[in-house]
Write a sequence for this structure.
């Protein structure tokens, strides 16, 4: 899947979720749901719907050929729909005319994208939950362990490692909640027909939409969103924010895991590193994945935002840009979430070294400064804060657990 | 303010909101509120607080000198606080030691930024409201006027201009509501002290925060957000989304205002254009401003997202990047919102030309296609949709009206 | 290859050039050249080199397995080198220790990337040459055809279509020449060893480098470029500039091909468009591809530039970001170049309509303005300029023809 | 100047270079040169030219009023030219008609921008030269000092600090040379008239251009570049590359200056830091400035590249975006160059600590690994390389010294 230099920056699950087979399968689910709904309201014959529904099985299609033909068509829906019509007409000639009736390429592509994105979001949410859980455990375990607080890359005072973990967790949990809310708005059926008016469905468009939404378990939107992409891109922004907060955790761990600092070690279980396989090398593959995502996702979000001024009733180029940039954002996000979940579960914490670094710094300071700003006792205040915040986080987390 | 090539892409109001004087004033309001709250809980003497509060008047300070000195300090708070201490000690030597007690540069800067941003958001909201109102009026007035629907930059079928206006309005209204919600989360007091633990305020930190929040009419956050920037950047993302949706309206108007299309004319009242001042030139300054914002805002958002992995308890560089990029985003957003509000209020609509373009296209088509896809009667379906959507939009708009 | 929504935005050739098989093949060519050179200067035994060289055949390796294992390693070189060592030791146990001797993962990856990029650049150059040739032909053919010159999206005066074509060609030709120069600097062997000092090769490093450069037909750089990426990213910038200039041509064609303007039609041969396959639709797939590239490439370039501050002797994350972003840039660039080459060869030009649009505009103007700014005779000045510029372009083009 | 949060990220010199007064002055220099040249070839009366030239003094104009009026005009040239015409006609009524004769707003703005950019480039070049000189001195002085080489943020082997400095210098010097070449192509007169054809100047356009180029000491381009921005944006890309390489130096210094590493200290002379003014804090303001630039410049470059598809003969919005983004890029670049020049001149190097870190690491390793990869003797190889590379750099540097 994807290019050889980015597959290890993501996960096989999310790469598969956006793989050609899964996307075409989702497109066929749209077509089946459309035919079912249209037959239900009497827009197309039941027999035609049955033929279409029966043919909407991805195993009946030549995925590679369809992808190849999309190059000439400039659109993935065209060769799939051609192939679907051909296959349907083998069994039921009349039915072919009812394939994608009153709908348009963008309807099927947007809805399919919502379906596969929903799966990717679930994967991401699961790993964010694990990351948050691991952080809350660390926050609780290390609430009282003093740690140099560092500002502008220099020692500034004393905090506790537990507080640091609680503060790492908070934005991840907020992102988790915002993403849930954002996805519930954005994961909609798209059904607008050629130009967003559902003209061919006469006055039955709204009914068809409702039936399809129930069938596909997506939201029925109040407006067709062919060229109004704000809710979709808002979900992309949430992913960008999530990745940014994951990157913050990874950045700190990377700095604390430097040999000269030595306060943390990324679990060896996450593997990887240098070909030399030197025993002494601490591997930081997970942090690398999260930091890479945190550099790449902002550019994807910028591309999505810049593509928003989509012309008239369907855009030339801006729409294709949005589609093309989308999967990479989800891939980065899941790569980062999975990596941090793994890294934090296996994180090796060295409270003695944290204390030693603090003491070493105190030793070079004038006594007054040492006692004012670098008294290990200052960790107590941080510990109290850590516990207060832990309670807040645990309370905030509940809705996601039952979700 | 700002550079000579971007002042016309924004408004004087929002440029002033982020002007040096207003930012320093907001910083002084933070210092006054801090002293008041700390005296209230007994952390600092009442007399000291009175001296500090009395000195926190921007007119007492040399704004230009403070900005100049920030260059050496690498921070705007350092010269202001130095100057504040000096001035306070002129009147009350003991009080100087209590200036910014237990707080840090970032506390004052972040809180000041929240204060000035709140003003900018209000400006933006007011102009988005005007834009939405103008669009709803147009949607109602032109619900039945047929218009060529265009996809991939070519005629595709028939819609109505009223429906187009309703569809332009929907994402703006959604942005308006999301921005309100996002701002209510992000516009917080920042109070964490040197490293986020409020250590110097002993156990009074939370009380001080609460008092200050009431005083400054900002939210008291559950966590200090020194290096957890997700809610702040989320507000930035909302601005990016808003600008994208404004850009969509501007893009369509620009295309429809081409001489060869001639369906719309941007009001001459918005002025501007070519030095030649040729009578024949239709001026599109407002659309230009919105389209420029739609190209620039995504890059600002990307910079904010990329700056999120802020090291430890205060970042080196990433924090300064976030600060430096912030005002430009608000300036673009208000520039775009104001421009579109003005353009839409004065928009000249030519329904005859819309109809003529449709008829001209019908004339070159085979009769069957002309009647299937370009029957002016198709506008009726669009008109019905426009009216339905108008009702939805009016209902959605209510919370913003009472806000 | 790649994701289903971007394959049609590129070409199969460039997607194949960066395919897993080709990249692994280039990595094996590096290993063979390294062994050959090291045996040549006596650093490793001839017999070991023969075994290594003989094993460096991509057909001997399980490409899918290596890609899969890269996920755990966080690096594509680790599983390949492990596999290479295993395979070598099947035949010659002693030789395995000399695989990648004194070199490092990054050496093999960077050099392999230079090899596959060279092929991609050649593909791009060929299509830019075709685009330029087509434009020069059009410029010559339509030098005298009057055309409305448009500024700020409104008629401004008169130019000639031939001049417009010459002006479209100029930046493409400049990009072609700059890209050639940039590639000749950037397409280097990477050979630095673990930390850029080639320490294990004793004093033979420079000799090995020279031999390898001759063998692989890449430049031998004066400095190892493990974390000094300026020349590589400079080549990326050139690709961004090229795509921007191709996008300018596509943007203008798209506007001129609007039904209401009707001056150009993108060749039907480039296929594609809407599933409806309406006869009346002019297909603009080629312009879509170029415009999509022009929106995506800037974000790729930004990611490359932002990744430049690579830590110490090999970066964590920034390096992986650069690698991951690279192929997409080349894919966009070739997609755009190929699309415009095809579109321009088949472009349908309607000089009558150009003239008619001019006359229609003249008719609505006051006579004085019509004669001052919209006299068709003004095209003569443009025609003279077109011919002068054509001569310049033909002269500039010569070095690329013999190259 | 500019916003209060970015002034310390730049320098007062470059902020002044792009200040309203300097830009308007450059625009007036264009108008004077145009009048002079046109009188020289007989296009306008000598008396008119004298009046225009005599009035083109920035002190005669109300800068603030012109900037304010640009908001309504959507262009800075319109109010300036109006004001110039008014002032000229006070003295010589007939001359007013010859102001900006045959030229257009974009001609004056682009040329003025080239003039002020030239000054900014000189400032940047001077500081890059100082940075390179300081690095070559450090490279020579510390060629033999062993230093832990670090890859993926962990110790990897041994290098020398001198080699590190030479490798920091190389891309800066290459950027310096590329920027010089790029600027010599891009710093051109813009003279195209309303739509790039210079129609009103009859056959005298080329002569006028040549005279103006000599007068203003800019290049006379072969093509008008109203909407062909590749050479201009290429110069922007070079600035982005330069900033990226400066950021690399800053990133490494920041990491080496961490308390726990302690190998370098940014000169206290560069000031700044925390309000606490704790003696123990090592100030890293210079690195902060360079790192901030390295995060911001890529977004500016992306905006410039994305704005390249400029419509027809003058773009709506894309052109204004390019203009608005431009000064910030130069400001970041000079801020970074100046900061690093200052930081490196005053850099405090601690070779004992470098050696101690190496020894500490050796002590935790198995003896075999310690001797193979972390033998301080390995620094000798690095030292030899450093000296070789120094010679190359000194030779490369010569053209810039005589320039």
């Amino acid at each position: 899947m994807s290019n050889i230099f980015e597959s290890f920056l993501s996960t096989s699950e999310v790469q598969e979720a956006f793989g050609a087979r899964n996307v075409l399968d989702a497109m066929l689910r749209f077509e089946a749901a459309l035919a079912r709904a249209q037959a239900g309201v009497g827009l197309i014959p039941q027999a035609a719907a049955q033929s279409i529904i029966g043919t909407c099985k991805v195993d009946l299609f030549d995925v590679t050929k369809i992808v190849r033909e999309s190059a000439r068509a400039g659109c993935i829906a065209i060769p799939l729909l051609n192939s679907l019509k051909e296959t349907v007409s083998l069994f039921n000639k009349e039915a072919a005319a009812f394939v994608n009736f009153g709908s348009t390429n963008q309807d099927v592509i947007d809805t399919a994208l919502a379906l596969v994105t929903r799966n990717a979001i679930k994967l991401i949410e699961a790993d964010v939950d694990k990351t948050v859980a691991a952080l809350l455990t660390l926050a609780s375990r290390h609430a009282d362990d003093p740690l140099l607080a560092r500002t502008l890359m220099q020692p500034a005072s004393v905090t506790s490692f537990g507080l640091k973990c609680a503060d790492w967790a908070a934005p991840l949990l907020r992102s988790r909640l915002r993403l849930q809310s954002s996805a519930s708005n954005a994961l909609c059926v798209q059904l607008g027909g050629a130009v967003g008016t559902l003209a061919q469905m006469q006055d039955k468009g709204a009914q068809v939409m409702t039936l399809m939404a129930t069938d596909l378990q997506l939201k029925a939107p109040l407006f067709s969103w062919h060229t109004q992409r704000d809710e979709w891109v808002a979900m992309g922004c949430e992913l960008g924010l999530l990745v940014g907060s994951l990157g913050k955790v990874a950045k700190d761990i990377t700095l604390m895991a430097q040999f000269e600092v030595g306060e943390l070690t990324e679990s060896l279980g996450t593997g990887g590193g240098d070909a030399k396989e030197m025993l002494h090398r601490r591997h930081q593959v997970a942090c690398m994945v999260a930091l890479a995502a945190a550099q790449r996702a902002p550019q994807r979000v910028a591309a999505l935002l810049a593509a928003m001024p989509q012309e008239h009733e369907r855009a030339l180029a801006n729409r294709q840009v949005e589609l093309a940039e989308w999967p990479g954002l989800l891939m980065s996000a899941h790569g980062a979430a999975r990596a941090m979940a793994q890294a934090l579960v296996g994180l090796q914490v060295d409270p003695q070294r944290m204390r030693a670094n603090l003491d070493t710094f105190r030793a070079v300071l004038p006594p007054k400064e040492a006692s004012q700003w670098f008294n290990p006792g200052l960790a107590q205040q941080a510990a109290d804060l850590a516990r207060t915040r832990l309670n807040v986080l645990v309370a905030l987390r509940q809705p996601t657990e039952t979700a």
Remarks:
- The CA atoms of residues 102 and 201 of chain D lie 6 Å apart.
- The first strand of chain D starts at residue 146 and ends at 151.
- The radius of gyration of chain D is 26 Å.
- Chain D is about 65% helix and 5% strand.
